[in-house]
Amino acid sequence: MRIAWFSPLPPARSGIAPYSADLVPRLAQAHVVDTFSATNARDFVWRARRDPYDLVVYQLGNAPCHDYMWAYLAAYPGLVVLHDARLHQARARGLLQQERFDDYRREFWYDHPDARRDFVEYAVAGLGGPIYYCWPMLRVVMRTARLVAVHNPRVAADLRQEFPDTAIDAIRLGVAPPAADASARARVRAALGVPGDAVLFAAFGKITAEKRIDAILRAFDTLARERDDVHLLLAGDASDDPALAAAIASSAHAPRVHVSGYVADDAIGGCLAASDACLCLRWPTALETSASWLQCLAAARPTLVSDLAHLVDIPTIEPLGGRAPAADPIAIRIDLLDEDAALLLAMRRLADEPRLRETLGRAGHAYWSAHHTLDVMAGDYERLIARAAARPAPVVSDLPSHFTDDHSGKAREIMAAFGIADFGLQISDS
Fold it and tell me: Is the peptide bond preceding residue 11 cis, with omega within 30 degrees of 0?
């Protein structure tokens, strides 16, 4: 099968880039897979015209590196893998930064016909932010895809209820085991200035408010007053959190908070080896499945996760234990309604109990091995690629005009004057 694969690719600083880099070679063992990132996506039009693809796969998420895909989604329906089931933040930013205010209005009203008509003016005025999570802006994607896939069965079930005419399925997210040599733990700790016997908590990925960094800093500050052997590593790009430096500097324990900046994919294993417990929190949520959390499990590190509705099937325990889940717990869940207290209790307990850290880490690794390896994910993709390729493209006649106007009218008019046949260009300015 010939597959066109739309995705960010390395060296793009996106979690989806290594995801595709790991996955495409596995799929290429059975298929011809041509990749299209933002740098070469316009080549897709002539290549598809010359030799049509059996399926187009879009790796779509709520980040700027996915913006280029919107010009192709409706014109070339395919398998859309939603890494975030809420796309409003990126979609609003992409349209409003280009001052395409009317396009944003029309698309928002199409996606959410029951919303207050005047909300768009709030967004057009630049007053967005967390409120965007209330309106996911999915309808165009859901109506034009041959098949939609997400990385969580409960999210898939909820989307089926909202979009009963759309084929929706789940693909398990897989990550490679992090690579680190035997000396990585000592080497990374020495570089950070973390003693070998200290308890190092770590949070991975781009540092944003949604990662609950302020709550983590508050809990760590309290814990650091109680014990002098705890340290905190924030391993990620902090450029979107300009207040972070001031927040850290205001603490008496700032020397024990380490901000690494962007961590290259091949260095993540070393940071995980240096860590004793990982803080994988999220609120508000775009209903994503965290690849960085799965990397922590693959590294056999105990984790803390926010207690979110779509994660209810993950076997977790409360910070002080409580009723045991049916399966071995793999993480400690943090109640969003009592986040500060729950986070402090959980961090305190992990700092106090090395045996608990070992037990959770071992169970988490077993869970990753059973459900979230690259081979598991590739198998799910093979199943859904076949299913999507066999489905007809939806016929949708009422899309907002910026999804159907390919702006080739003048070119067609000139060609017609010279007797040149229509070359079938299909791309919008979406």
Answer: yes
